[in-house]
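Sorry to interrupt, but I need a hand with the structure work. It will help me judge whether the discrete encoding reads sensibly. Write everything out right here, beneath this request:
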Amino acid sequence: MASERVEFSVVQRDAADGPPGAIAAFPYDRATVERFREAFPRARWREELGAWFVPGTRAERRLTAWSGREWSGVLAYADQRGHDAFTFEPITSPYLEVGDGIVIRTPYSRTVITELREVPWARWDPALKSWRVPFRSHEELRRRWPAIESAARLAEPDERRKRKQSRQASPEDENRRSLAAELRRKRYPVPEDALPPLDRVLMTHVGWVMFTSVTGELVEPMTADRF
């Protein structure tokens, strides 16, 4: 199986801009980052580059040697082993495809995103509008797949529509809509023999208000009690 390699390029800098060096960008994996930091203790994460900066005139050469050792052996073997395990016990789902790795396409779901971010080496591919997971990560993906697939099904348009219709039919939703309609009317019931002064700020049970007019509209006691 083809393995992912570290992508790096030399960053030329003038003396005024800082020392020369190289940047290294690779899919996130905690163990790999730890090994990288051990090999390059002077490396610093650069947020504006989205990559690690390794100072030194020999940084490119050192990164080339490190990436060859790191990727050609350990990760290639892990991909092959993961591919064999996945072939023996595949994950069958309409949200998952298999090619040179595992491709996942689901409706938008925060739960799906949260779960996939916890899978080592998983990355979003903007060109395909899908997530890519290498075979070396299939065990963690399998462990999280029930939550991912369940969240994806709930995010389907038909399921969202059903939940919305169910909410709209509930007494709680009717109460919310009735309250919102009453608030839009901007009225407050008062006894007809104790009218409030106009254009003065007064304290009521809903907070500070200012009465601008008295319409004489009769309010049903039940409506006044309800709101």
